[in-house]
Design goal:
Layout (H helix, E strand, L loop, with lengths): L2 H17 L15 E5 L7 E7 L2 E12 L10 E8 L14 H16 L9 E3 L3 E13 L4 H13 L3 E2 L11 E2 L7 E8 L2 E4 L3 H6 L3 E6 L5 E7 L6 H24 L3
Parallel strand pairs: 4-6
Antiparallel strand pairs: 1-2, 2-3, 3-6, 5-6, 7-8, 9-10, 9-11, 11-12
Helix pairs in contact: 2-3, 3-5
Length: 262
């Protein structure tokens, strides 16, 4: 049997299960895989966390360094987010320039952090127009078994909430201090499998899906960002229901990001 034929059979099986409200791994349509968070995973970073969502494994590291603010925001620090999908994490990734998947993860995670105003960038200003802190958020995918966006933001937020500004190291202040966090965004991703919409898709479910929608929420009841992916449509009622589910899941995931593992 060819790989294409085997993939088609697997997709049909996934869709048949979804029609019955079932999934390959035994979860319900509205159930996440087990989530584990290990803060402080990278000792040399100013903040870090390893996150496992099922078998999907992501590491996020925070690095803060003095730099020059942008001319149009002289009183604010700089935030930059980057995601790397290394080849060993999945056979579909190849060495070389950033692939579309890595670019999408970077942008979607960055958008949620910015839109939620997770960090008050004005508090990263040292000398207006001359010096500010640059906050680098780097996400590395170690094992890709689906739903990279949720896992990546969860790791980034878990790392940011535990980050330390190394002011003493750079001679800017007499002591280091915690990075001030205003809001904690959480992204929840859903895919359509036939007439059923499931949360936290596995890799195989993503390959079978007819549409993907990610909703980012914060702790004060805002939808701060949305991202549509794959080919397929969602009705207005679908979007409302997905948003409701995203808020409910967001509360639990936010507690995990702040406090540990499940």
């Amino acid at each position: 049997m060819s790989a294409e034929a085997a993939a088609e059979i697997r997709t049909t099986h996934i869709l048949d299960l979804a029609a019955e409200g079932k999934r390959l791994d035994g979860r319900s349509p509205d159930e996440y895989r087990p989530i584990r968070i290990e803060p402080g995973f990278v000792a040399t970073a100013d903040g870090s966390a390893l996150v496992r969502v099922g078998d999907t494994t992501v590491v996020a590291g925070i690095k803060l360094e003095p730099g020059k603010p942008f001319p149009d925001t002289p009183n604010a620090g700089v935030l930059t987010t980057n995601a790397e999908l290394i080849p060993l994490s999945n056979a579909m990734f190849e060495p070389g320039p950033p692939q579309p998947g890595a670019i999408e993860v970077s942008r979607v995670v960055d958008r949620a952090i910015r839109a939620a105003e997770t960090i008050d960038l004005t508090k990263l200003c040292v000398t207006p127009g001359e010096k500010s802190w640059v906050c680098y958020t780097d996400v590395h995918v170690i094992d890709h078994d689906g739903n990279l966006i949720d896992a990546s933001l969860l790791a980034a937020v878990a790392a940011l909430t535990r980050a330390t500004v190394p002011a003493k190291r750079f001679g800017i202040a007499e002591a280091d201090y915690p990075l001030a966090i205003q809001h904690v965004p959480i992204e929840c991703t859903f895919v359509r499998l036939g007439d059923t919409i499931v949360v936290d898709p596995s890799f195989d479910e993503e390959q079978a899906a007819q549409g993907r929608l990610t909703v980012a929420t914060d702790e004060v009841g805002r939808i701060v960002a949305m991202q549509k992916g794959l080919v397929g449509a969602f009705s207005p009622d679908d979007v409302k229901e997905i948003a409701r589910r995203a808020f409910r899941h967001g509360e639990r995931l936010r507690a995990l990001a702040r406090g540990g593992s499940a």
